[in-house]
Specification:
With 352 residues, this protein is α/β, with parallel strands linked by helices. 45% of the residues lie in helices and 15% in strands. β3 and β4 form a beta hairpin. Bound molecules: guanosine-5'-diphosphate and magnesium ion. This is Interferon-induced GTP-binding protein Mx1.
């Protein structure tokens, strides 16, 4: 374990500045400009254990439970901070920054969700960012998405499936996204809706990693399921056991370690495929490599956008101090707006 930590911290020291840069870019809403950022996106069917996996990685309690809990995307930024004695947490959404604490985090996320998506069971694509600075967390940024559900539960809009699919697709379609597919050991993987969706955008599974939760609930046949790889997961499987009931974070990790060490069936699964600490290490490695791979291209695209904006700016009228100067300039702007509008294009098409 100690060597794992040393390894993780050396990764963290190297990757931290790059990850911070990407997170700052995320803040600038680059995706709205058509520039995609390297992102690890958590998907899974409803109640597969997505929020529990994030909880395990962050060592905090998130809203969890039956039915739909995660109703808006949650961008979770974990920042390992070896100097901090006390964890520091805050939420960012809309133009708000709300400091919070480990005890209050679940309630704070619920409040923010209600503000964004209403008090009912509706969902929204507008994200909440949760920043967690803590001693023993890996430097990772992950996005948790609402779980996929075929059948609306009472109070959910009837097109909930389409709404959720749309949000999920937006996040997983870009080739810069790594798909963390959360599968419950209690189900048949090929029947998972999240598998169907991720295969739609990543057929060979080259950017898909599977996390199998609830290993404790269905140990029979798990080894066979993850070695047979019926559903083509290119980046491999990681079997975990999350916090159950009122366990503390430490109790949950001890119990997970004990389970994969001594359970007659689970102990046969290779150690490189089990446990939250191994998952954290794999994710930091994957994150480092996608950032390294994507950053040069992002810099290039930002340069292009910038040049484009600068030349647009330069083509603007320079000095409009009199009405006589301003009128022709206004006329030119109006003409070019009308010519470029889709409505005009439509009219031209239909009249020709
Ligand atoms: P989400 O809807 O995908 O975010 O799923 P949640 O994280 O809310 O989990 C759904 C339920 O499964 C909760 O009651 C969790 O406590 C339970 N759960 C998640 N992971 C595990 C696990 O590894 N073992 C057990 N026994 N229960 C789990
Ligand atoms: Mg959830």
């Amino acid at each position: 374990m100690a060597s794992n930590n040393a390894l993780a911290s050396s990764y963290n020291n190297n990757i931290r500045p790059l990850l911070d840069a990407v997170d700052r870019l995320r803040h600038l809403k680059l995706t709205q400009e058509g520039i995609q950022l390297p992102t690890i996106v958590v998907v899974g069917d409803q109640s597969s254990g997505k929020s529990s996996v994030l909880e395990s990685l962050a060592g905090i309690s998130l809203p969890r439970g039956q039915g739909i809990c995660t109703r808006v995307p949650l961008i979770m930024r974990l920042q390992g901070d070896s100097d901090s004695t006390e964890p520091s947490l805050h939420l960012e959404y809309g133009d708000k920054t709300v400091p919070t604490s480990e005890d209050e985090i679940a309630a704070a996320i619920n409040t923010a969700t209600v503000e964004i998506a209403g008090a009912g069971k509706g969902i929204s694509g507008k994200p909440i960012t949760l920043v967690v600075k803590k001693k023993s967390v890996p430097d990772l940024t992950l996005v948790d998405l609402p779980g996929i559900t075929r059948v609306p539960v009472q109070g959910q809009p009837s097109d909930i499936y389409e709404q959720i699919s749309k949000i999920i697709m937006e996040y997983i379609a870009p080739k810069e996204s790594i798909i963390l597919n959360v599968l419950s050991a209690t189900v048949d993987f090929p029947t998972c809706e999240s598998i169907r969706m991720s295969r739609e955008v990543d057929q060979l599974g080259e950017r898909t990693l599977a996390v199998v939760t609830k290993s404790d609930k269905a140990p029979e046949g798990l080894l066979e399921k993850v070695t047979a790889d019926d559903v083509h997961i290119g980046l491999g499987y990681l079997c975990v056991r999350n916090r159950v009931g009122d366990e503390t974070y430490e109790e949950a990790r001890d119990e997970e370690e004990r389970l994969f060490k001594s359970h007659s069936l689970l102990s046969q699964i290779d150690k490189s495929m089990t446990g939250i600490p191994v998952l954290a290490e794999r994710l930091t490695q994957i994150q480092a490599s996608i950032i390294a791979k994507c950053l040069p291209d992002i810099v290039k695209k930002i340069d292009e956008k910038l040049n484009q904006s600068v030349s647009e700016l330069n083509s603007m009228p320079q000095n409009l101090s009199t009405v006589a100067d301003a009128l022709p300039a206004l006329q030119r702007c109006l003409t070019s707006t009308v010519q470029n509008s889709p409505r005009t294009a439509q009219l031209q098409m239909s009249s020709s």
